[in-house]
Amino acid sequence: MKKIKIIDTNEYVEVRKILCLGRNYAEHAKEMNATAPKQPVIFMKPATAIINGDGKIVRPLISKEMHHEIELVVVIGKDGKNIPQEKAYEHIVGYAVGLDMTLRDLQSEAKKQGLPWTLAKGFDTSAPISDIASISNIPNPHNLRMICSVNGEVRQNGNTGNMIFSIPQIIEFISKYISLEKGDLIFTGTPEGVSEVKPGDIIEAEIVGIGKITHEVAGEK
Ligand code: MG
């Protein structure tokens, strides 16, 4: 079981499932030649995808093209089903900065064939995540600057205020179909600027006020 620390406490969250949003920023949907969705696009990663702390992001041999996607991660602290928007924040324990690492070549092929994205999105090390900032320190999660750099060069420079579906809308939507449990993570989508990373590159992902993670990319041998 993967455990992630809540900053400035002795508490840890044991990660259960990881839910992710696709195309939750209009400019990113555009750069992927996709239209902005009418309802949230949801996919999942297994908890084995997480790296927290040290560790390299490893591009598996089945892929030649891996991309970074910086995302605000919502950490669920209380179980719930059919959670209305007004009660959404009661179910959140905190936030983290995460990377939704994506094997873009596999994903593009899967899209073309109408097949699931599971391997493109759920491979080992595909979900680097920071420690958790307590919700009490983040009064407004919809106005946070997010910056992702590769080898010191800024590639993504966005703001969580540009999400298409807000955090309460996302929680209401998902929990109609899938029960949310303490320890679930929700990756809320990425702004524009996604790009390829290669073995040897250093990725830095920061959400100001929440945290920063730094990982080297490696190729599977
Ligand atoms: Mg993503």
What is the fold's blueprint, element by element?
Elements: E1 3-5, E2 12-14, E3 18-22, H1 26-31, E4 41-45, E5 50-51, E6 57-59, E7 66-68, E8 70-76, E9 92-99, E10 102-103, H2 104-113, H3 118-122, E11 127-128, E12 133-134, E13 145-150, E14 153-159, H4 167-177, E15 185-187, E16 195-197, E17 202-207, E18 211-219
Parallel strand pairs: 3-15, 5-11, 6-18
Antiparallel strand pairs: 1-2, 3-4, 7-10, 7-16, 8-9, 8-15, 9-12, 13-14, 13-17, 17-18
The structure holds magnesium ion.
Order of helices and strands: EEEHEEEEEEEHHEEEEHEEEE
Low-confidence stretches: none
Please report the distance between the alpha carbons of the first and last residues: 26 Å
Helix count from the secondary structure assignment: 4
**Fraction of residues in H or I helices:** 10-25%
The CATH superfamily name is Fumarylacetoacetase-like, C-terminal domain
Bound small molecules, by name, code or SMILES, are: magnesium ion
Task: Count the domains.
Answer: 1
CATH class: Alpha Beta
Q: What fraction of residues sit in β-strands?
A: 35-45%
Major beta-sheet overview: 6 strands, mixed
So what's the oligomer here?
single chain
CA radius of gyration is 16 Å
Quickly list its features.
14% helix; Fumarylacetoacetate hydrolase, domain 2; 6-stranded mixed β-sheet; 36% strand; alpha+beta; binds magnesium ion; 221 residues; 4 helices; single chain
